[in-house]
Amino acid sequence: MIADPTISSHIEGLANTYNESVSPVGDRCVKVRVQSADSDRVVGGFANAWPSELGDRPALWIPASSIAEARLEATAGAKTVSDSRSLVTSPVLLAVRPQLKDALAQQTWATLPQLQSSPAAMNALKLPGWGTLKLALPTHSNGDAASLAAEAVAAAAAPSGAPATSGMSGVNSLLRGQPKLDDAELGTAMDALLNASDPATAPVHAVATTEQQIFQRGTSLDDAKSSLAGWLPPGPTATADYPTVLLSGDWLEKEQVTAASEFARYLRKPEQLAELAKAGFRAEGTTPPSSDVTSFSQLAAPLSIGDNTMRVTVANATAAPTGSPAVTIMLDQSMPTEEGGKSRLANVVAAINGRLKALPDTASVGLWTFDGTEGRSEVSTGPLAEPVSGQRRSDALTSTLDEQSASGGGAVSFTTLRMIYNEALSKYREGQTNSILVITTGPHTDQSLDGPGLQEFIRGAYDPAKPVAVNVIDFGSGSDRATWEAVAQASSGTYQHVSSSASPELTTAVNTLLG
User: Fold this and answer.
1) Which of 195, 253, 263, 417 has the most other CB atoms within 10 Å of its CB?
2) Which ranges does the record mark as transmembrane (predicted)?
């Protein structure tokens, strides 16, 4: 089995005890072996090659939250999960110095983005000299706390009745305003918070993490009460719910499935839950340990932002915070190949739509499509909030993308890019990162422009004073690859080959290159 790093050592201890007395399953003697890995490695392993250092694919997985399970199902299909239920929980708090906890008393998840971005925000909290909130959101060894905090901020910042994605601008403000640290490890952020001699000038003022992690850090401090506290924002509680996810697939034998289910039941027995509670997790029927840094107070109802699709969308957008780009999407319609139960084009459209929801209204986006006959402008490039044919440009883009149908028979990609590049230069948007995002399978079928000709055109047209990067997501494996790599390089863009559209690799590429 695999468990999140924030709980794996505790599960391993329980597994060792279990293995001493476990009965055979059928005619097999089955032992539970615990590997520690964060959710990105597990989800990525199901999408692509499984990391050999993690051993075989697991029968049981305990991620930090059901966000990870939603991402796995989006990648490998719902059939991969046969059962899932929460084992223990831990709410997301801000780890802060005690004086900041008192100052945050009237704040909420919705007010954090302003505190993060306004230069003298802390003056209003009667903390002169503190500057901004300096909230760090570590993504490693932090129990999905960054993604869970993002859900809470998005839900709080969204207009009443609107989906959580409508509040992603607040999340982006938090992410863009993060303190610059050496890495994304929780320990690095906590050290920066606690080791400064003067809290006001510390590189970090707050860290989004779980109550359990704050409790654990408190046990290692000499004078914990005067140096560390946990602040719980009011309202619905962002919660790491640590589900026991029983997996199903052809890599498992029947005895492994049975053993995984029995171990999951074992973990829910009072004795095991009591052990997990001692480590700072909340578990049904247990008493929390005493702590100088957190009170284990009663919680409001858990936060819910919608179905798994919504959770995956917010998580993906959080993984790659947005700027305010000016980008024209150039989409190949000749992508009928089925991957993950849908056409490649449908998977690409879903990835683009997910990213569009996270972009700020000031982002400028347009859409061209091309097939074997011609390239055509579908939606002109401009601010997402700007009206186009009686609707917001963002809505026009989404509806146009949803109407796309996969075709076969070639792709006039080179001549289409030439048209778009000339237009992007003539309508260059100052103060924004200007680019063209080419998404194609190929091979090109242009009669009037070959690969060397396209490269020569881009090298001649590229203007350092008005840089327009050509970024390429390429599913193809033919002769076009060298051309696309050269075009991206000549325009200071990025080339990325993606093997399958039914993988997190595509989502990451779209999130990164769309802005």
Assistant:
1) 417
2) none
